[in-house]
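EI: anyone free to look at a 156-residue chain?
SC: sure, send it
EI:
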Amino acid sequence: MARLTIEGADLVVRLRWWERLAAWSGPVRVSLTAVEKVTITREPWRVLRGARERGVLVPGRLCLGVWRHPGGRDFVALRPLTDVVVSIDLRRPSVYARIAVHSTEAPRTAADLRMAVSRAAVAADGRDEDVPEAMPEPEKPLARPGGRWTGVPAHA
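SC: here you go
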């Protein structure tokens, strides 16, 4: 199914070939600075708003395409019986008001996306601040020659 990726300063929804045909859409690309809120839900039908503009709806099985509602348009790629949904609310002038995609690793996807959004916001503001890493690297233990762990550098 569809997957979220971050490419440079953009969030991209990559679709498989059959999904592109069904949704009448190529990859969906929006700027990370347009992301307003990222949420996770286990109730996929709650993210749907309005009526289908183009795409496919198989009730209870598949929801793929563009939905139009009074607040704008949403892009959805949902398989509600299998996974959790990552819902991304966007600011104007983005083409879509919301992007909702199922994800097998929703918490990690959402955390990575939030971190990328905060980095993009810092870069856009021109501030020179350190943004914490999404997942800090574990500290590497230090060893003496011979492979014995002692907690002191090998050159000491």
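EI: Residues 135-156 have pLDDT under 50 and may be disordered.
SC: 👍
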